[in-house]
Design brief:
- With 77 residues, the chain is mostly helical.
- It has 3 helices and no strands.
- Helix 2 crosses helix 3.
- The protein is elongated, with a radius of gyration of 15 Å.
- Bound molecules: zinc ion.
């Protein structure tokens, strides 16, 4: 905890990916894929991120950017 005195429980005693990432597009891509995979719960329709198609890739990257942008806001409590 001493290295990251402000880190909360979700930071695993270190900086999270939002705090520490230096590659924004890479982080967006990783989160977009994670979000996509989390929606592939029906085997009949399940598709990998690579096979999702351009439209879904774009939409889920937008979701990922929104989520990351939200989490980057200063704490308001
Ligand atoms: Zn963080």
């Amino acid at each position: 905890m001493t290295d990251h005195p402000h880190a909360g429980p979700g930071h695993n005693s270190g900086g999270c990916m939002v705090c520490t990432s230096t590659d924004r597009d890479g982080l967006v891509e990783r989160l977009a894929e994670e979000l996509w995979e989390s929606r592939q719960d029906d085997p009949q329709w399940a598709r990998s991120w690579a096979d999702a198609g351009e439209l879904w890739n774009i939409r889920f990257r937008e979701l990922a950017r929104t989520a990351i942008g939200f989490l980057e806001r200063p704490e308001v409590m």
